[in-house]
Amino acid sequence: MLCFEVTINGKQHCLAGSEETVVLSLILNWLRRTDRVDLSVGALLEHDDATEQHVDWIEQHDLAVGDEITIRVIDSPEPDEPVQKGEKRPRETCSFCSRRKSEVAKIIAGPHVYICDKCTSRFLSAISDDSLADKLGVTFESGETSECSFCGRARNQVARLVRASEALICDVCLETCDRVIAGDVQ
Q: What is the pTM of this model?
């Protein structure tokens, strides 16, 4: 099966892959506000029982200038077990309201989250008129270390960050999702 072999400074850290992989991702990013370089390797697994699960092999936050990261795409019958496994949940369920794809007009996938058209509309309404937030059941996140579950932007990098359940979405991603739902963006 297709796997990512990830080596950091000459030491193999993981051989990521699974027979049940739908999406295998490797994300390397730098956050200016913390001057931190993060590496994450994860996947979305699809199980036979109509559930999916997010898993991670690497969540490394201490990379520095001079570190060398090597990624090889290989075929291997025996990948490493993920070090972290999320809860199994029904496929394509909104992370904010738990509605299934069959219950909404559209659902949009992020790296480890989904948002439906109903939540997108509700959150945008609350952002445009603060007085609607309580009525619509919308909570705005104020914690400086909080990050958008879709793009990773920190609270201080966006105008608004909406929280529902354990998921967060920023105003920028909400506007993008709204354009996707409207058919303006693919």
A: 0.55
| Separation of alpha carbons 147 and 161, rounded Å | 8
Task: Note the Cα 101 to chain centre separation in Å.
Answer: 18
Q: Mean pLDDT: which of 3-12, 17-26, 40-49, 96-105 is highest?
A: 3-12
Residues 153, 33: Cα–Cα separation, whole Å: 10
Cα gap 53→89, rounded to integer Å: 7
Strand partners, 46: 52
Check the CA dihedral 124-128-133-139 and report its sign: positive
Cα distances from 162 to residues 19, 86, 144, 180, 183, in angstroms, run 35, 22, 13, 19, 23
> In sequence order, what are the residues at sequence separation of 6 or more whose Cβ sits closer than 8 angstroms to the Cβ of residue 126?
132, 133, 136, 138, 140, 162
